[in-house]
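step=encode ok
step=design start
structure_in=
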């Protein structure tokens, strides 16, 4: 093994740690069907749980549709008056940064054909309480050193790093 290989493995392990500990979810509106008329976005939203820090993303033909964040009146009446945000890239990622109800509509006339969605964003839940003493200790240790995700990414990182460096499982 060359001397640069352990450094590359360490960098890869750090990336795994960062990526595996990210808690935010990207909710793609309409899943593989995207932001289009004729969809039941209420049903779609009811099958998702949204938390502060999650993303809601809209995928659509940018020459045909767009996305406006509106208030309840704008949502109910399909109007963009008094909107609080608008997007038109065709791949819009919107941070849900507050615990509240958000209202999104299409402002090109699609709203009246069902292109509107309302989602309730919840505060982040507290970390789960551990039932075993060993788990409490490892979670406390991870929290003490400030590891995101309660240290689960760190454990995966050590596991992969040990194999990459040829040590087997520690």
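sequence_out=
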């Amino acid at each position: 093994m060359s001397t640069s290989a352990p450094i590359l493995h360490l960098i890869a392990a750090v990336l795994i740690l960062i990526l595996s500990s990210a808690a935010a979810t990207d909710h793609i509106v309409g899943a593989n069907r995207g932001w289009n008329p004729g969809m039941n976005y209420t049903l779609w939203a009811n099958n998702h749980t949204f938390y502060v820090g999650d993303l809601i993303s809209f995928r659509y033909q940018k020459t045909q549709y767009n996305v406006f964040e509106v208030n309840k009146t704008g949502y109910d009446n399909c109007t963009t008056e008094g909107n609080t945000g608008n997007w038109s890239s065709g791949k819009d990622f919107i941070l849900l940064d507050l615990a509240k109800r958000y209202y999104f509509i299409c402002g090109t006339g699609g709203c009246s054909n069902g292109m509107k969605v309302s989602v309730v964003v919840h505060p982040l839940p507290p970390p789960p309480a551990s039932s075993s003493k060993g788990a409490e200790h490892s979670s406390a240790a991870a929290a003490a050193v400030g590891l995101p995700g309660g240290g689960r990414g760190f454990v995966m990182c050590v596991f992969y790093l040990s194999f990459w460096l040829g040590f087997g499982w520690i």
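step=design ok
step=annotate ok -> The chain is about 30% helix and 20% strand.
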